[in-house]
Amino acid sequence: MPERKTIAAYLEAVQEQIRWKRARPVLIRELERHLEDQRDAFLQEGKSPEEAERLAVRDMGDPVTVGTELDAVHRPRPQWGLLGLTIALAAAGAVLRVVFRQPYVREALVVSRALSTLGLGTAVMLGMYFLDVSRLVRHARAIYVGALAVGIATLYITAAQGVAYYTQYILLFYPIVYAFWLYTRRSSGWKGIFLSILGGVPLAAVCSVVPSMTGLSLLLLSGLVLTLWAAGRDWFGVGRWKGICAVLVLTFGGLTYLLLKGYLNSFLLRVMIALRPELEKERRGYMGWMLNMFWEDVPPLRIVSGEAAMSVNAGARVFGGGQEMRPIDFSHDFLPASMAVAWGWVPLLLIVAALAGLLLWLLVKGLRQSYLPGRLAVLAVVLTLGLQTLFSVALNLGFVLFSASMPLVVGNLQTVADMALIGLALSVFRGDSVAREGPGGPLPQRKRLRLRIEYQ
Across the strands, what pairs with 318? Predict the structure, then answer.
């Protein structure tokens, strides 16, 4: 093989040996820096530019050997455990949808829908898993505009039907869209804080027009946590405590304004009814009152079968006073309550514990990321799924404030969206060994990389 005498030719030979395309730019940039340092050292010794470059290349070693070693070290890191747990929870949700289907729905139809949802969700999750998060970050503003456009477009398309059915699933991605928007505002000072919060207003407006209290709550709560997290790390460059105070003042100042203007009166009434459903048990408090009565007679383990199970599933159960409840669909938002009534609360606790374990696993790995946009993306995903879980548990325990489904377990398009979010988070872990801020950004693993590629 002819000797590679120039840095450019040497880097080209090394790059040909690295199969992971995402790793190539980072590794080659680092190798180039090291070669340039070596060249400069020879120049200081009085060597000519051509001789200095030749000696730097010679001291680095055979380019094929160097490239092969880098290829062996820097490979994608599969996340088999997290992938397997996610698919297992989604599969459990598919089984529950079949078991607790409505009596008047054909079993074959429910089975086909459950399987198609599981298959589509798995395919979407794997597709997101192989995405390059750094590319999404580089196009964060375009993603923000696109998410708004898609949300508005689906609202317009479904306006004739009067139900924004698909928009509610798109809203599940708004917290991570806001996270990417938030990242674009770093190092922008006080203006960055203001624009970060202002950027959430159009997203919140789409949630309100749907209307989706679930989507709005997910966006507002997760957005507040993400903005406080960024301010606490002085992303905006105004000081940590000043940034945190500014975010809190703007947030609670806006809430106070809405409260004084009376815009929150309806929401406060809903909270009161959710806390005391018996006050309107024949109207808006009916669901909460009914669930409270369910939970009064649910032991740790029980088996309800036959006509009794069908009666519970259809929501027509006779209580002590001989009053028969109106039929209710227990196959979607109230699937956990239906499962608890039929089997007891221990199986439900196991499902919730598995979901909590998945989210905690994601959170711990996410907070360990040195790649800040990736860490922010994982945090947004965990907040979205974690808040969904809390909302669903509260709903099924009788705190009926707004609609909320258990992540992954609900078994419809929400499961597909949830699996897509998890796939995006896992893509961060898959490439964390080569993650970087962006062009010209810091390379936190530079010292360790130099030790690996210095061959004599």
Answer: 324
Nearest to 231 by CA among 178, 177, 199, 185: 185
What is the rounded distance in angstroms from the CA atom of residue 313 to the CA atom of residue 311?
A: 5
- Give the rounded distance of the alpha carbon of 205 from its chain centre: 21
* Torsion sign over Cα 178, 388, 107, 287: negative
231, 193 Cβ separation under 8 angstroms: yes
Compute the distance between CA of residue 209 and CA of residue 148 in angstroms, rounded to an integer: 12
Instruction: Give the pLDDT confidence of 212-232 residue by residue, as tens digits.
Output: 888 999 999 999 999 999 998
d(CA 76, CA 23): 9
CA distance 268 to 448: 55
- Weakest mean pLDDT among 45-59, 316-330, 391-405: 316-330
Rg (CA), the chain: 27
- Burial pattern 150-174, b for ≥16 Cβ within 10 A else e, equals ebeebbeeeeeeeebeebbbbbbbb
Instruction: Please give the angle made by the CA atoms of 251, 197 and 391, to the nearest 5 degrees.
Output: 65
What is the C-alpha to C-alpha distance for residues 42 and 29, in angstroms, rounded to an integer?
Answer: 20
- How far is it, in rounded angstroms, from Cα 3 to Cα 440? 30
The conformation of residue 324, written as its DSSP 8-state character, comes to B
Intra-chain end-to-end CA distance of the chain, in Å: 18
Question: Residue 66 in contact with residue 453, Cβ under 8 Å?
Answer: yes
> Are 416 and 124 in contact, with CB atoms under 8 Å apart?
yes
The C-alpha atoms of residue 144 and residue 267 are separated, in whole angstroms, by: 28
Question: What whole-number distance in Å separates Cα of residue 420 and Cα of residue 413?
Answer: 11
Helix axes 7-15, 24-44, angle to 10 degrees: 150
What are the φ/ψ torsions at residue 411 (nearest 5 degrees)? Answer: 75, 25
Contact residues for 204 (Cβ-Cβ < 8 A; gap 6+): 216, 219, 220
The per-residue pLDDT for range 235-253, each reduced to its tens digit, is 888 888 998 999 999 888 8
Residues 391-424: tens digit of each pLDDT? 999 988 888 888 888 999 887 888 999 999 999 9
Cα 60 to its chain centre, rounded Å, is 42
User: Which of helix, strand or coil describes residue 318?
Assistant: strand
Does the pTM surpass 0.85? The reply is no
CB 395 within 8 A of CB 274: no
